[in-house]
Amino acid sequence: MISRTLATAALLSVLSLATAARSENLEQTRQLLASKQCPKCELSGAGLVLANLAGANLGGANLNRANLSRADLTRANLSGADLSSAGLFGANLGQANLKGANLAGADLRDANLAGADLTGVNLAGANVKGAIGLGEYVGRLENLYQWAMEEGQRKNYPRAIEYFNQALTLKPDFAPAFLGRAAAKAEMGNYTGGLQDAQQAETLYSAQGDPNGYQTSQVLIKQIEVYQKRARGEGGASSGNLLNVLGGLLLRVFF
């Protein structure tokens, strides 16, 4: 009986704290919208879609999982703010102060960050597809590679090749991009170009001491040669998607 009473009391305590947190969240959301002044506010999970927060002071605020899609945050102070897993799709963050902000896992697709202060910002795992104003931050290579793979798996090979090309512009010895581009070219019927890229990946993997990559390059070279023979009428029609076949190895590059 005592244990049951204690359990009930504990449950009521948790529910009470949750209710208080929601109440505080709503109150501080109202404060933000009314005054645009809410430094260090508790706004986790807040719904702020299309909100006009231009010039707002949100320094050090907790905006974890908040939905700020298409919000106007131009010149806003978000220094030190927790924006992890926040929805910022299409948001305008032009000239915003994001110094030291945590944007890990945030959705920044099509967001505008032109002129924003990104000093010390954490963008690990953020989706920045279509975002502008990011410059050459650390995660850019990872994102370009991921987008290339996604386009390739959708059989949009020309777009995949564009992303692989951009990745190689940033890192010319990035062997996985050569391997992925080789597969995309082969799927488009450019077997000569595909073989050249696969052989370049093989050379790079060998020089970089990566036996798994080297072996995968050899497998891809043989597969492209099979495709080439089939195209010449020396076998059946080619099928499948080489990028899907390679996906297991390629998607482990960063993880």
Which key terms come to mind for this protein?
disordered C terminus, 48% helix, mainly alpha, 2 domains, elongated, Serine Threonine Protein Phosphatase 5, Tetratricopeptide repeat, 255 residues, single chain, Pectate Lyase C-like
Give structural notes.
Helix content is 48%, strand content 0%. It contains 7 helices and no strands. The chain has 2 domains: 34-138, E3 ubiquitin-protein ligase SopA (Pectate Lyase C-like, 3 Solenoid); 140-250, Serine Threonine Protein Phosphatase 5, Tetratricopeptide repeat, CATH 1.25.40.10. It is an all-alpha fold. The longest helix is centred in the first third of the chain and has 34 residues, at 2-35.
Topology:
Elements: H1 2-35, H2 140-153, H3 157-170, H4 175-187, H5 191-207, H6 211-231, H7 242-250
